[in-house]
Design a protein that fits this description.
By secondary structure, this protein is α/β, with parallel strands linked by helices. The chain has a single domain, classed as NADP-dependent oxidoreductase domain (TIM Barrel), CATH 3.20.20.100. The chain contains 10 helices and 10 strands. Strands 3-4-5-6-7-8-9-10 form an 8-stranded parallel sheet. A two-stranded antiparallel ribbon has the order 1-2. The radius of gyration is 19 Å and the shape is globular. NADP nicotinamide-adenine-dinucleotide phosphate (NAP) binds next to α8 and α9.
């Protein structure tokens, strides 16, 4: 295999957060979708940093922070040049400090650049469960309960354990209820974002509130767990418009999705264990971005197709997954 040349991190676009901090506009995702071995994910982190990535998206529920910690320890890149984020899992909304301290121990870090509340609900599901799994203790979104969790997040900033805090899987109605009561507003909101699920209203809301949108499943998560698949799901990488634009750029449609994300003004966090794909995705952010015409064509290709529906977080009495998203 030909050696892959590292990419100069200085060429990678940056997002300036409301704090003034600079965050690389692409991160490496680390969720192995329940089937990729933790050591393989960690080795991808090491590969990615060697190839020029400086932003790694972690979460305690991915179960691999210890292994990723070893990968971070193995790199000679100074800590200050890395942007590492993690997320508090749903079962620790009541004790965020303990969750964060454990994540810091596992990752072998003194601080996180960003720490997110993974989901707005304290609802959990067993690992590897199927789509019909329901937890009888699951509850709907409670903004006051969320704000109690958020106060604990704010305390982590005061303690210097995390530099920024953020949300994930939020909606406009949910954010509207809490933003007026927050001392520190979210730096970012992590959300599903790919050409087939562009979420223009939420995207615009975040930009208006100076909250950076971070796009998960930027490629349409082709290897996502069974519990996140339904017969109606579409796939951005087989969309004829995307395929045609990708061909014109000499890119794989997956890489085009990453280029689209950065061109669209948000921060994708593609997952990959393949060094060539890890490299291609980073490189796509450093070459000429998509032009207005291409962006318009991709905007028109939106299918409004949510892939991560979150059915397993539904509570007793909920109608269906649309209720999780206030639809
Ligand atoms: N906040 C949340 O609730 C939430 C939810 C879901 C995901 N996330 C985060 O978002 C990250 C990304 O989402 P995801 O992992 O579900 O999906 P994704 O990044 O959309 O897709 C990953 C898949 O795309 C393939 N791929 C990547 N680059 C490619 C390329 N250049 N050419 C061809 N195939 C390519 C990978 O295969 P190879 O390994 O073979 O390259 C992998 O199977 C996660 O890892 C996680 O960090 C957050």
């Amino acid at each position: 295999m030909t050696e892959l040349s590292p990419i100069d991190p200085a060429l990678v676009p940056q997002r300036i957060l409301s704090s003034g901090a600079s965050m690389p506009a692409i991160g490496l995702g680390t969720f192995g979708s329940d089937h990729v071995d933790h050591d393989i994910v960690a080795s991808s982190v090491e590969t990615a940093i060697g190839l020029g990535y400086r932003h790694i998206d972690c979460a305690s529920v991915y179960g691999n922070e210890t292994q990723i910690g070893h990968a971070l320890a193995a790199t000679s890149v100074p800590r200050a040049e890395l942007w590492v984020s993690s997320k508090v899992w749903n079962d620790q909304h009541g004790d965020v400090a303990t969750a964060c301290e454990q994540t810091l121990r596992d990752l072998g870090l003194d601080y996180l650049d960003n720490y997110l509340v993974h989901w707005p609900f304290p609802n959990v599901h067993p690992p590897h469960c199927d789509v019909d799994e329901r937890n009888p203790d699951a509850v709907p979104y409670d903004p006051w309960a969320f704000l109690e969790t958020w106060e604990q997040m704010e305390a982590l900033v005061q303690r210097g354990l995390v530099r920024h805090i953020g949300t994930s899987n939020m909606t406009i109605p949910k954010l509207d209820l809490i933003i007026p009561h927050m001392t520190i507003t979210p730096s970012v909101n992590q959300m599903e974002l790919h050409p087939h699920f562009q979420q223009p209203e939420l995207f615009g809301y975040l930009i208006d509130h100076d909250i950076e949108p971070i796009g998960f499943c930027p490629i349409g998560s082709p290897a996502r767990p069974e519990r996140d698949r339904t017969a109606d799901d579409s796939s951005p990488t087989t969309d004829p418009v995307l395929v045609e634009i990708a061909e014109a750029h000499g890119l794989h449609p997956a890489t085009l999705c990453v280029k689209w994300a950065v061109s669209n003004g948000h921060t994708p966090i593609p997952f990959s264990t393949n060094p060539r794909n890890i490299h291609a995705n980073l490189e796509a952010t450093t070459t000429e971005l998509l032009d207005e015409d291409e962006l318009d064509r991709i905007e028109a290709a939106d299918q409004n197709c949510r892939l991560i529906k979150g059915q397993v977080f539904l509570w007793d009495g909920a109608t269906d997954w649309h209720e999780l998203w206030d639809e």
